[in-house]
Records
---
Amino acid sequence: MTGTEPAARSGSRRGPGRPAGSRSGDTATRARILEAARELFATRTYGATTIRAVAAAADVNPALVHHFFGTKRDLFAATVQLPEELTAQLPELVSGAADSADDVGRRIVRLYLTMWQEPATGHPLAAMVRTGMSDPEAADILKQVLTRTILGPLVAASGRDQPGLRITLAATHLVGLAMGRHILALPPLTEAGIEHLTACVAPAIQHYLTGPLPPPPEAPAR
Amino acid sequence: MTGTEPAARSGSRRGPGRPAGSRSGDTATRARILEAARELFATRTYGATTIRAVAAAADVNPALVHHFFGTKRDLFAATVQLPEELTAQLPELVSGAADSADDVGRRIVRLYLTMWQEPATGHPLAAMVRTGMSDPEAADILKQVLTRTILGPLVAASGRDQPGLRITLAATHLVGLAMGRHILALPPLTEAGIEHLTACVAPAIQHYLTGPLPPPPEAPAR
């Protein structure tokens, strides 16, 4: 198995004596480890998943898992990669957030609901959320990935105040929406089509991302 | 222990020979069972909690638990009673939903956040949500209680279209908000005061409860 060969010295930089093709061998091994990790995190939960178990499922040495991904926490974060569909559309969404058009909310909600509906992207998302619900550490990583990758750039581009609060309000709303539609399967949400649901939810997300929020009080009252 | 005496024939109707004071004895026993059930559902999860374990914790016969509460599902539903503070304010909230004042969203969000913040009501709510997250059946009961008791009357009073969708969108948003603030403890939500957070979230809840929603398409597209 090619994946057990000693890995390159530092990340993707290769020594000159490295045989041709090893890069794609590493890529395949890395993908196999990631797939095994996603499966285990989703079925056994985060807490019960070990690097050793992931290595066994991927048929590689545990040291190789550590080499490619670092700690279990890092490995989980790596499995929470966003689907290409989303990352490809993100620049366009971000540029939309820069002007005040009432369209960013609609586009992000439609894209998000579409991703959940497509099995190729929806199943990994559901696995992530289920894992996140079962373990506070996993939830923390999930939150960081989602907010930094999607909502952070959107809010930064909008240049509005209170970016952290905006991001968090939009994120908790969107995750709650997907939980209701795809994990709890609540009929009013499962029976609504994507376009209809998008039209209902977009104003709220638009409000959080780019709308006027009341300023925080001078002395924060708890 | 008075609670183990044979229970009345049908619910709260008593035979004439029933000793005076047995009603309050029943009440105390019932309360003790409920308290034990809340504790076990919250710590052991719904799936791992049995009627027998609840009976043992409350120091009563399992048959008495069945007599008072029916099945485990019914018992869980009974533990998910809303705090008195909320039910007392509900009629006023509902009458507010009948007019179109932009105040229902603000009042329901503030009351909801206040309940989560007070230990006496917040801890049971957190236990319910944690239990709901750990078990689909528990989640279903939790959802039914919350939507029927709080949001259902609000939306019904508003007389708006698509009540089920409105209720579900508001409920998933509110539950997600409390999860973010009180279970995941996300800093932008924990650092915001109740008044500030209420002012941020109220427009979205108002939108879902009484605002104009786009009509569903004639032939629902999935």
---
Amino acid sequence: MRRRIPMSTVVAETTPQADQPARTTLREGAFGHARALACRECGHEVALGPHYACPECFGPLEVAYDFPAVTREEVEAGPANIWRYKALLPVPTDIEQSPNTEPGYTRLLKAHNLGRELGIANLWVKDDSTNPTNSFKDRVVACALSAARELHAKVFACPSTGNLANAVAAAGARAGIKTVVFIPSNLEKPKQVNSAVYTNNLVAVEGNYDDVNKLASEIAGEEEGWAFVNVNVRPFYAEGSKTLGYEIAEQLGWRLPDQIVIPVASGSQLTKVDKAFQELIKLGLVEDKPYKVFGAQATGCSPVSVAYKDGVDVIRPVKPDTIAKSLAIGNPADGIYVLDICRRTGGAVEDISDDEVRDGILLLARTEGIFTETAGGTTVGVLKKLVETGQLDPELETVVINTGMGLKTLDAVADHVGAAATIAPNYPAFVAAGIL
Amino acid sequence: MRRRIPMSTVVAETTPQADQPARTTLREGAFGHARALACRECGHEVALGPHYACPECFGPLEVAYDFPAVTREEVEAGPANIWRYKALLPVPTDIEQSPNTEPGYTRLLKAHNLGRELGIANLWVKDDSTNPTNSFKDRVVACALSAARELHAKVFACPSTGNLANAVAAAGARAGIKTVVFIPSNLEKPKQVNSAVYTNNLVAVEGNYDDVNKLASEIAGEEEGWAFVNVNVRPFYAEGSKTLGYEIAEQLGWRLPDQIVIPVASGSQLTKVDKAFQELIKLGLVEDKPYKVFGAQATGCSPVSVAYKDGVDVIRPVKPDTIAKSLAIGNPADGIYVLDICRRTGGAVEDISDDEVRDGILLLARTEGIFTETAGGTTVGVLKKLVETGQLDPELETVVINTGMGLKTLDAVADHVGAAATIAPNYPAFVAAGIL
């Protein structure tokens, strides 16, 4: 039953006629309640498949659904991972039966201490650092893995410098599908190890991340049966971020927050959390109410924040220069949609310096016991700045998303913390040191 | 209402009479359904308090309960963390209201690939690496924190070289209680950073772990109001490991496994998982059935395994020399109880070399996408050896516990994995490299 499917970049042989050969190889319900891939720009719909660009206007394709009725009780009876929302994702109804990393349903912590520190009355941290490979990427990769499986892909791959590589290599190992992970050859050894433990096929590419990315697109176009999670199965992959929005609403007691602060790299996560909130409203799972969405960037890579502040609709690409490397996308694909959403909801996009990123990491660790990576430091630091500049209302219920964990970017803070004292191993020495 | 309570090592002023002053400062239900601290050796009971050694025979004190009736439905209606079992822990009924790290309810993964590799028909991995600070220590520390709070402790402290330090510093930060963490001064910088991000009071002690430990006991005896999690509130702390056993049974569908493999450092975790299984049987939450418990050690620190193989009841302390540092306790406090349990249930204690520990890490990563630390490598490697030597029945349902995560012991595998190829950033170079 397995056959090789060309993972083409645009739709060619698989236009949405029912008698297409590529369609017939898909099993019934392979993508759950997903109906088609719809262009975000022109609305043109194409058949579900390994496509990411609209054949009409080259706009980005997004999964469109015919949702069934879904009740809170059905969701609550599901497993403690993202598959509790499987009816709202492009995955088959038996998704739990296929080996996957079972990510999600991470902690939503009431942040009493951080809230007090920042003067925010009602603050929550959604902590995605406790996912299987310690970042939100496990969510999107789990959805991409399901698509790769249903499309009979033979290779599961990505270009990445960090979190995504970990998530792809781990998920592929568990699923028993061959993985190939492409990284810049100058990547630090620890980051290489963190992917190489899972896969024999870590490929170092002489060049920067843009070069690696370009190579991945080239391979996706040339080779058959390769599923590049963030290239040719990107529409399915991106849907995984919706689960962050679903979980926040459910964990608040089926209620949307008033304000939410989200880091912006490609911008995909922010747009998908907004999509999730809109879907929950349409499905009647939460009450319709206004909410404000805020985007967070590091100043060293802040093309969306710059456009927001300039009041323009065009993102001017930049060459990243920041310690927040997991946010360092100079030409963010979904940047314009981030602008749309933040403006439409009355939110904002803001950016902070690398020193403020570091301060954000330590602030979150000292107040809530969460050790985040530079992306989380950025989001917490931006939250602080948003309050100080009056852009965020400290009286409204606010959620901030932490997307990753500090052990992956240890260097960012290594020279800024350490032992308070070094003492001889006896009680008088301890007393003399004056600890506390 | 706060008062300083001497955190004494043995019971003096707080014998179990109802009119004792120390008792009256405890609020009603401070320790849930816990009745007393009972000596594991002689059964003597003393009042609940900051004590860990029996005043009669100096045996270890353990929490004893008068359990209420508990139903599966009540547990299932609880939160997705250890507090779903709060009725079975020495914590108040409103424990969720007090800021804590909300650990537990981690993944139980069906290990198809690892099972196939080892020839085990029905294998599961309980993965505790996704806890808030990435080890099972978050469970025990959460219970110790509750005890410290109820006892009005002013300082939350521990001696540690790694996982415990992270868990204590993080939990203390979130709870807003002062933490002091003692480490050997020669500890690697990354491990220091991983605790120092959370606390200002990281104290480096000139000496080895035994020296640090001794200093902690000295301070616990001299200072008032210090709760050392693994010293004077150890009985409460240790109960947290029971939740691993509860979760495994619940996640299997309220059923005990036939065999379980658990790493042995002090031996506490293994004894508490057995205690959890026994409690579930007594409470009627699972069917009574035989199960075998297996202990895993690294050969470089295998005093319990040596005693098991020698058929003796006495643990001969050793000087640890292994890469599995989180298991490197040369004189394990609960070693004799581990021997008891493994012999009584028909299990065994086994040990493996450091090379086999490394192989175990990579085996788990390659088969199930879980990057474990050296302790997990030890457990997986021992599982393999138990099958090969015929000590574990490959036809029976088996659970193996992973207690921590690989980023904390990266050095163990850093020189053993890496890029498969380094290529120029173009398609012909990729083809020429012959990947796959």
